[in-house]
Amino acid sequence: MDILRFITAGSVDDGKSTLIGRLLYDSKSIMIDHLEAIERQTKNRDDGEIDLALLTDGLRAEREQGITIDVAYKYFSTPKRKFIIADAPGHIQYTRNMVTGASNSELIIILVDARHGVIEQTRRHSIIASLLNIPHVVVAVNKMDLVEYSEEVYNNILKDYDSLAGQLGLKNVTYIPISALNGDNIVDASQLLPWYKGDTLLNYLENVSLADDINLTNARFPVQYVIRPQTEQLHDYRGYAGKVISGIYKVGDAVTILPSGESSRISMIELGGKKVKEAFAPQSVVIHLRHDVDVSRGDVIVKDEDIPLIEQQIEVLLCWMDNKPLIAGNKYLLQINSSRVRCVVKTIDYKLNVNTLEKDLSPDKAGLNDIIRATIKTAQPIAYDSYQKLRVNGGAILIDETSNVTVGACMIQ
User: What is the helix, strand, coil percentage profile of the chain, to 5?
Assistant: First the structure.
């Protein structure tokens, strides 16, 4: 059974937490004791209904404000698929939270309040989805009950968002009219929306194809661990463990180890302790090479006919996540997959306005939640692809050497 990782995003009070609560509740993915606790907390509500938003808004401070102020992860499953949900805040000051939640997501649900339509925060969330190259976008037009389930209102929002999606180059956009509060079109089709002939939200999430999102063309295998038991039975054993993040590897393939440039051929592949003839993304395997070459954690094994870029200076789009500002000249650790090298941020080229895509040229620093274009120089060459071409080998993080805290999320250009 495969896993769909998705994120929800929307403006304050668009109903993100209620939507997730409804998905969990209607798909019967809530533990009985958890449900009873939620019922006790909402017993004084005038309408007597359960406040499903409390299933994700776990902190008392969040409940008192009536908003979500952190990324809440929830897990549930149906007979068809497992799901990991990231509920990200809608405020601009929590851009880093959305970037964090979206970095591993294959799909984003952007909630639009049917009463207000496409607004500035909708545009900002869509821009971030575009920058992060999220493969699938669902525009959930929520609170249809408050506009009398009007097809005209829904169609006007669809036209407005279609225009925005075209400007941003968003692909695979799906529109679903819903009412998270009442459960319309969440799990079961609503009789109040007879003009809508598409999938319910859960049905779409269960059946959206993820196979096309896996790159099987560009073979990339970052080495996570070198296995050398050095026992009497396995005194010559040398295997390179890791995850095939993209592409396909076969026994006999001519490969290059980066960044050293050493060449060899694959002599054996092990999957789950058994020998196999080939391995493909996203399998975790052990690869053996025919020649005794120097391979370490952080090296990347690639096929000879498809070599990624190998540079010491890279251009990145960077979301700054630290309270301390980023200033040109600051030194950090750059981690891409299992490779970690020292680096320096040479220049901050511009700051991106995530509401308008306008560029503030030559800023002197970057503050918390800013998205900037920067030039980074590394102490050793790194093997990478552009984020737009190959997301799994084009994303990196900056780490503070002193505190070991992640301070920046990078999309290599």
Answer: 20, 35, 40
